[in-house]
Design brief:
five-stranded antiparallel beta sheet; 30% helix; 8 strands; three-stranded antiparallel beta sheet
Length: 166
């Protein structure tokens, strides 16, 4: 029995369609990820420099295993840009699991306060009024296809101090 060319073409189209549908369903599931603030470790505090290690928990609900190849962060306080950070180390994300992501953040507190037109007293006396927003972009390699996953995390200075104590 000889397989006709039209059967090969139809079978190939069906295979590509089914594979594409599966990958798309997993991509949609992947985009249901959650990201949480795990902890923060203060490495250095001085008038001219603060160095922090920030750890986030990335929850992957999909069946996909992938690599986060780069993380980009932009930090805003009260909607004013104050700092950015980049992590170029690769993080492997396992299917249906939570993985910790770390990033080292350095900034000049005096320069930040000058941009914000605030002083430490303002922040310490009203910790719920100081809003922190972090815009993140995770560059992911998924089946050799690069994609970017955006995320915005918002918290107050009071919440941040509470995390650093744990």
């Amino acid at each position: 029995m000889k397989i006709q060319k039209k059967h090969l073409v139809a079978g190939s189209i069906a295979l590509v369609t089914i594979t594409g549908a599966f990958v798309y369903m997993q991509y949609k599931k992947l985009m249901e990820y959650t990201l949480g603030f795990k902890t923060m470790k203060v490495k250095k505090v001085s008038v001219n420099e603060i160095v922090l290690d920030v750890f986030l928990l990335f929850n992957n609900p999909s069946k996909l295993k992938f690599d986060i190849t780069e993380q980009e962060y932009k930090v805003f306080i009260n909607n004013q840009f104050v700092s950015d950070a980049v992590n170029y180390s690769t993080n492997k994300i396992e299917p249906k699991s939570s993985s910790m992501l770390g990033v080292n953040v350095k900034f000049n507190p005096a320069a930040v306060l000058k941009v914000l037109k605030l002083n430490w007293t303002d922040i310490l006396l009203n910790p719920t009024e100081s809003k922190i927003k972090i815009e993140m972009k995770f560059k992911v390699k998924l089946y050799l296809i690069p994609i970017t996953i955006p995320y915005v995390y918002e918290l107050t200075f009071k919440e941040l101090v509470g995390f650093s104590k744990s």
